C-alpha cells in the first residue's frame, strides 16, 4: 500500500510560474486553501517620503523563534509591491475581532487608507496600528519569489500583544474563535 500523495501529471509545479498548463483549477484550489482558518493582519510600511502604506494580509506565519523570524507574501501585481520591496522595515499588525471594518478598508485599493486610522510610526516609520491584538515590527531580511507571490522574510526587532480576541478568516469570510469552554456556555 502506498500512502504517498499523488502528483499531477505534467510539469514540475515548483517550476511553474503563472502557467496555463497546470492541471489544478485555481478557483477550486483557492476554495480548498480557504478551509484553513487564518488570522487577519494589516502589513504596513513607509515609502521613502514617509507616506504610510498598508494592506490586509492573511499569509502571515512564524518561521523561527531563535532568531525571531516571520514571513508574509504579496501578489506580484500589487500596486504596493515596490513600497514593500524597498522598505527597510515592515510591521505586521494582527487584528482583533472588532476590527473587521479596518480589515475590509485595507483590503481595497484606496489613495489614503490611513484617513481616520489611529497609528504611530514604528521602526523604519512603518505604521503600528492602535488596538491591534499584536504587532511585530520587522527589519526586512530577504525576499523570495514563489509563483505569483513575493515572500517577505522579516527579523522581529520589537513586538507587543494583548489578550484581545483575534479576527479570523476562513472560507472567504471573517469569523471568531470559540474555545471549547466558550461553546459549552
UniProtKB/TrEMBL annotation:
Residues annotated as domain Flavin reductase like: 33-176
Native source organism of the sequence: Bradyrhizobium nitroreducens
Stated family: Belongs to the non-flavoprotein flavin reductase family.
Name of this protein: Nitrilotriacetate monooxygenase
Pfam families the record matches: Flavin_Reduct
Domain of life: Bacteria
GO MF annotations in UniProt: FMN binding; monooxygenase activity; riboflavin reductase (NADPH) activity
Keywords for the protein's UniProt record, in alphabetical order: Monooxygenase, Oxidoreductase
Region Disordered, annotated ranges: 1-24
Amino acid at each position: 500500500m502506498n500512502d504517498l500523495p499523488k502528483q499531477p501529471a505534467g510539469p514540475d509545479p515548483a517550476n511553474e510560474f503563472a502557467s496555463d498548463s497546470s492541471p489544478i483549477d485555481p478557483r477550486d484550489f483557492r476554495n480548498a486553501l480557504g478551509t484553513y482558518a487564518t488570522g487577519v493582519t494589516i502589513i504596513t510600511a513607509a515609502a521613502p517620503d514617509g507616506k504610510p502604506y498598508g494592506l490586509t494580509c492573511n499569509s502571515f506565519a512564524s518561521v523561527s523563534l531563535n532568531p525571531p523570524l516571520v514571513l508574509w507574501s504579496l501578489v506580484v501585481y500589487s500596486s504596493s509591491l515596490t513600497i514593500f520591496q524597498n522598505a527597510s522595515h515592515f510591521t505586521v499588525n494582527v487584528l482583533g475581532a472588532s476590527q473587521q471594518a479596518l480589515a475590509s478598508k485595507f483590503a481595497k485599493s484606496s489613495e489614503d487608507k490611513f484617513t481616520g486610522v489611529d497609528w504611530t510610526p514604528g521602526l523604519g516609520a512603518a505604521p503600528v496600528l492602535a488596538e491591534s491584538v499584536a504587532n511585530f515590527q520587522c527589519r526586512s531580511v530577504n525576499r523570495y519569489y514563489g509563483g505569483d507571490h513575493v515572500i517577505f522574510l522579516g527579523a522581529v526587532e520589537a513586538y507587543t500583544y494583548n489578550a484581545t480576541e483575534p479576527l479570523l478568516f476562513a472560507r472567504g469570510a471573517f469569523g471568531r474563535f470559540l474555545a471549547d469552554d466558550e461553546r459549552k456556555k
